[in-house]
Amino acid sequence: MSEPPSRTDETLPRRVLQQFAESVAVARAGVVGASARLSAELALPALMAVIAAALAGFYFPLLDGINQFTPLWTAAALGTLAISWLGGIRETVRRASALALFAVFLFLAPLLRFNFGSETARHAQPDERPVERQVERPVIAKQAIARQVKVMTFNVVWGRDSSAGLEAFIRAEEPDIILLQELDRRRAEVLDQALRTRYPHRRYCVELDGCDGALLSKWPVLESRHILRSEKSPASISATVEIDGRAVRVVGVHMTNPRAPRQQQREIAWLTSHLEEASRRATIVAGDFNLTPWTFTLARFAGRTGLVRHTGIGGTWPANGRFFALFPIDHVLSSKHFSLTRIAAGPRLGSDHLPVVATLALR
């Protein structure tokens, strides 16, 4: 028969809580509490102004850049809540709680859009095939048989020598289509030599200024063209890849730095126009957008083109420091002819970006 717990064991958690409450009370009554109250009163209106300006980005694209940093001011809102609690004024705590809750909602909003889009994609019906071809096919071909297409996008960054790690990662993942950005001539030659057997269809653009992309494919490339970076267009590659006898449009994108918001707006307008038929034909778009999913610009782009963004809120940049990548700026989108099977960021490969690999099911 087991012995009942001792009285000391029963009261230990209570004693710890009591000591903690006494320590908090002492802190609130002293300089720490006064500093916390002052900090909270100053931080709350500042955060309110930041969030209001971020929401105004829906109407004013230049303010949309504030949404790029949603993780930072969400963390600041949660920190303000903790400081308010330490200050001990209930009204301040209530205001900080409401603000923190709203900030967290905005932080999670891309996931809500992402889930809704993926669910829509699962039930969408491709409409680009002629009716006559569907009627002539045998009954068994009408069943929902999906071809798995694995797509990888990676900004390798100029001058970074990570070819060996990149080759090993590609051999391990075996993507069907690879889209690279910021690829220089030397690394292109190394990769071409190492991967030409696995990827017989390759398109590089490393000779011209304003063009830094590459496409490697296991599937035949029927046609392709490189778009040079200009005042209106981003550096990109647009190709038609034949997958099981079906033409799929593949577009690799490298948008300009977010420090040039007007240029970003011009580039996204050009890309939207370039992809105006994306909802009617099987399309994959991937690359370094230099836009986080909290921006109205990226959400509006997906809505106007009918593309589904498959990447969530996991960071892909910066990945060259000691800490984890915070900002998701590398994205994979597709038309609703695809549904998402799996998506994940890869390891650090010497770049300040992480590679992103998505497995899509083409119906």
Q: Could you name the CATH homologous superfamily of the largest domain? A: Endonuclease/exonuclease/phosphatase
- The SSE order reads HHHHHEHEHEEEEEHEHEEEE
Q: According to CATH, what is the topology of the largest domain? A: Deoxyribonuclease I, Chain A
**Separate helix tally:** 9
The CATH architecture assignment of the largest domain turns out to be: 4-Layer Sandwich
List low-pLDDT spans.
114-143
Strand content: 15-25%
Radius of gyration: 25 Å
- Mean pLDDT score, rounded? 86
Outline: elongated
The main sheet comes to: 6 strands, mixed
Main-sheet strand order equals 3-4-2-1-12-11
Tell me the count of domains. 2
Helix content: 40-55%
> What is the strand tally?
12
Span between N and C termini? 64 Å
CATH class of the largest domain: Alpha Beta
